[in-house]
Here is the input.
Amino acid sequence: QVQLVESGGGLVQAGDSLRLSCVVSGRSFSNYPMGWFRQAPGKEREFVASISWSGDITYYADSVKGRFTISRDNVKNTVYLQMNSLKPEDTAAYYCAQGAFAFAGPRRRRDEYNYWGQGTQVTVST
Here is the structure.
């Protein structure tokens, strides 16, 4: 059984930083691209960042480029999202996901991921 467990969310002030973590078990971690998505109340789940299986290629949504960094540790089966200069509009539940295709580059679409975590809440106050 594949499990993705996110952690690291919380309540912070605008301008602060947070690092989210997502640990994967039950399936080979190192062979698959990973992604982070987020969903604010009343909105669709949107792409935030993704990383290739090898970790050498990353994609970001324009809204987070230059502020967020995705990385992975294939020994710890963990993907991270370092979030700096947080803004109130970053408030959302953040979900990690594992790509459907092995040895693939980073992916932006939800339908290219077949395993999802339960989410961790990030709230940024003014």
Observations:
- The first strand starts at residue 3 and ends at 7.
- The mean pLDDT is 97.
